[in-house]
Amino acid sequence: MKNKIIIAALFFLLTFPVAAQVFEKTKSETRYFPAPKGCTLNLTNKYGDIQVIPVSGDSVKFVVEVKVSNKKEADAEKKLDAISVNYTSSPFLVSATTVFRDSPGQWQAELNDLAKSVFNPTNRAEINYYVYVPSYINLKIDNKYGNIFINDTEGQVDISLSNGDLKAGIITSDASLRLSFVKASINTLKNLTADLSYSELTLKKAGNVRMNSRSSKAWITSIQKLDLESRNDKIAIDTAQSISGKTSFSGLTVSLIKDDILLSSTYGDINISEVPPSFKFINLNTEFTDVILIFHKDVFCKVFADYRKSKLNYTPGMGEFEIQVTDAEKQQNNLSGKIGTGENPSSSVQINSLSGSLTLLKR
């Protein structure tokens, strides 16, 4: 029995060798630069986090921490020496760029794979920035394989981020985001231009937003105006003043639309949970899309729907409708009339639907 145990133990040791020693090397540096009003911070990095911290004063402070690990101590030291930061400064621009002095091919082969650079402790590089800035400074940040954290800021914000997280507080100026494989959470911003790819965006409050998104998800609490170009997305909005744009293979859910919608959709669904009495117009052109519009009980508006090969449902008694068959062979019909009761309605609903469903409800 003891011989069997010894043999089994030897087999285990031969099959699963003891993990090799990992050598970790670190270095850090601190730099200061003047940053008067109107100045922009330009920061470019890979394989690490960037944290922007507002402080009083009129200068920028960089604290950069570099960490490299490798199975060979000499290789760890070599890679640590090969990483540096290039700084430039002028009255209008403070710039910091992470530089890899080894041949690009070597770094590309060893570090561009996320699994190697982040999850493999035997061959890892990490460059983290802590940047202390006046709240008025403009921010232009490009980061790959890392996270970005921004507290409240007053300057304009321009961010490119891939394979990481973005967290931001209150941004009182305009912002531009280009996100790929990113999970982003933002409290409040003035106006936003966003390009999302395979990402998630959670936004509490914004003014005007222009969003071009692919295979992404967005949750927005309150927004003034949304201009949308969407493909294969899931978008949920609590309250919006105005929505326009195009969607394809996307789902759009809006709890409350205050003013108007002008939207084209193919192969998707549109669900508006409440259309209030004060709304102005709804104009939808849809193909292979399911549409649900729920009107407040006091809504009074004109309605016209041209639908072909589409299923129509509506609440009995919600208005005065006339339905006509315009082309029986093409299964084309139209609905015209009014929702609610009154005289001279100022609001209108116009829908063109092909091969989908249209549901009009009132509550």
What do you see in this structure?
It is a single chain. 10% of the residues lie in helices and 65% in strands. It has 363 residues and is mostly beta strands. The chain has a domain at 20-144.
By secondary-structure content and strand pairing, the structural class works out as mainly beta
What share of the residues lie within helices?
10-25%
| Oligomeric assembly | single chain
Distance between the termini: 79 Å
**For the report, how would you describe the main beta sheet?**
23 strands, mixed
Structural shape: elongated
Number of helical runs?
4
What is the beta-strand fraction?
Answer: over 45%
Q: What's the mean pLDDT score?
A: 91
Keywords, separated by commas or semicolons:
363 residues; 4 helices; 23-stranded mixed β-sheet; single chain; mainly beta
Summary, kept brief:
The chain has 363 residues and is mainly beta.
What's the arrangement of secondary structure elements?
Blueprint: H1 2-15, E1 23-34, E2 40-46, E3 50-54, E4 59-70, H2 73-82, E5 83-89, E6 93-100, H3 104-111, H4 114-119, E7 123-133, E8 138-144, E9 148-150, E10 157-171, E11 175-189, E12 192-197, E13 200-214, E14 217-231, E15 234-248, E16 251-275, E17 281-295, E18 301-308, E19 311-314, E20 319-327, E21 332-339, E22 347-354, E23 357-362
Parallel strand pairs: 2-6, 2-8, 3-7, 3-9, 8-10, 9-10, 10-11, 11-12, 11-13, 12-13, 13-14, 14-15, 15-16, 16-17, 17-22, 17-23, 18-22, 19-23
Antiparallel strand pairs: 1-4, 4-7, 5-6, 18-21, 20-21
